[in-house]
Amino acid sequence: MARLLVVDDDEDIRELLSIALGVAGHEILTASDGPEALDVLAAEPVDLMVLDVSMPQMSGLEVARRVRATPPAPEPLILMLSAMGDPDDIAAGLAAGADTYATKPFNIKSLTRAVDTLLRGRAS
């Protein structure tokens, strides 16, 4: 199916998302912070990023801004994932370049569906 990059500083969340999205048929790459995510993107094309907002060194918002400013080819879709669910936080994520925004805690089936919906939208 698609190649996904899961970016989260929480190892348990990275592992949960990697397993669930892998079972859904996707190839999974991971990164534990923003700089590592940018390194992965420079080396590997991905179709979609699941990107945490609150991370050390570089926030997911900054990662999204950098990806949108100088996108790799092809430009990945971005599903921003955050514990911050205030409308202003969601608006900031979308303004930074996210295609959609999901909040933690999350339902893994709903998140998998959101990923598939984004990828289907790109394919059409």
Automatic annotation (TrEMBL):
Transmembrane segments: none annotated. The modification 4-aspartylphosphate is found at D52. GO terms for molecular function: phosphorelay response regulator activity; transcription cis-regulatory region binding. GO terms for cellular component: cytosol; protein-DNA complex. Pfam families: Response_reg. CDD domains: REC_OmpR. The keyword Phosphoprotein applies. The keyword Kinase does not apply. Keywords: DNA-binding, Phosphoprotein, Transcription, Transcription regulation, Two-component regulatory system. Residues 3-119 form the Response regulatory domain. This is Two-component system, OmpR family, alkaline phosphatase synthesis response regulator PhoP. It comes from Nocardioides szechwanensis. The lineage of its organism: Bacteria, Bacillati, Actinomycetota, Actinomycetes, Propionibacteriales.
